[in-house]
Design brief:
The protein has a domain at about 1-45. Helix content is about 85%, strand content about 0%. It is built from 3 helices and no strands. The protein is mostly helical.
Length: about 110
């Protein structure tokens, strides 16, 4: 019985040892991929690409511009709100109004 147990344990250990390097490799591969992606992004931002790769980068630039356009009106609204708050007289004894102002500034 003891021999069988020992053999089983050895087998399990071998299997685990076989499994562990695979897991480590997978993790390393994932990390490498992430690093490569980061490097690629940095390279695209830093250096102008050769003419072959320029089309996908144009698309990226367009996307960024669109996002900026979408974000911009919100920023303008926020700025306007802040100006309104500054222009408003600081005599607000009405509790409901003060709560409303806080809510708008939080948005």
């Amino acid at each position: 019985l003891q021999l069988q147990r020992q053999q089983r344990q050895q087998l399990q250990q071998r299997q685990q040892q076989l499994l562990q390097p695979q897991r480590q490799q997978r993790q390393q591969q994932q990390q490498r991929r992430r690093q490569q992606q980061r490097q690629r992004q940095q390279q695209q931002q830093q250096q102008p690409p050769p003419p072959q790769q320029q089309q996908p980068q144009r698309r990226q630039r367009q996307r960024q511009q669109q996002q900026q356009r979408r974000q911009h009106p919100r920023q303008v609204q926020q700025q306007r709100r802040h100006h309104q708050q500054v222009q408003q007289p600081p005599q607000l004894k009405d509790p409901v109004r003060t709560i409303f102002i806080h809510r708008t500034s939080a948005c």
